[in-house]
Specification:
146 residues; mainly beta; four-stranded antiparallel beta sheet; two-stranded antiparallel sheet; globular
Length: 146
């Protein structure tokens, strides 16, 4: 954004294994400066791979993604503003499309995607390849940059 973003209006939720109820939630805090990014990482990440930028959030529950979960970003009063996966649908052990799988992979938004993915009503099948590039596990180049 070109303007500051008040993060306290946002909640990140993880829906594990097709469960329609969130299993973990994280209410964000603070203000994100214009053009800035926020990195949220698991406490067990390998510090030899990446040095988190100042202001990063360490969280072991909401970013405990194992390849088959749905992750949703909600904004108070606006509902879902972005999602990964499909809430309430269990894809088995991974989100898979063709030969692409999310188990033990690094996922990065495709270049040129500038808006969040908002679920259809009623929910449509979620498609991995429309907005996400998939890389080998622990591919961290590009993390913390837009």
């Amino acid at each position: 954004s070109d303007t500051p973003v008040e993060l306290s209006a946002y909640v990140l939720r993880t829906y594990f294994n097709g469960n329609p109820a969130a299993g973990a939630s994280l209410r964000l805090t603070g203000t994100l400066a214009p053009g800035a990014l926020l990195v949220i990482h698991h406490p067990s990440f390998d510090p030899a791979l990446f040095t988190p930028p100042p202001g990063s959030i360490v969280n072991g529950s909401v970013v405990n993604f194992n390849g088959d979960d749905a992750i949703v970003l909600e904004r108070d009063g606006a509902g879902v503003v972005d999602q990964f996966g499909q809430v309430g649908f269990d894809p088995g052990s991974a989100w898979t499309q063709g030969a692409v799988t999310t188990v033990d992979r690094t996922l990065r938004r495709k270049a040129g995607i500038t808006r969040g993915s908002v679920p259809a009503t009623p929910p449509a099948a979620w498609e991995l390849d429309t907005e996400w590039d998939v890389f080998p596990q622990n591919t961290v180049d590009g993390l913390g940059r837009r």
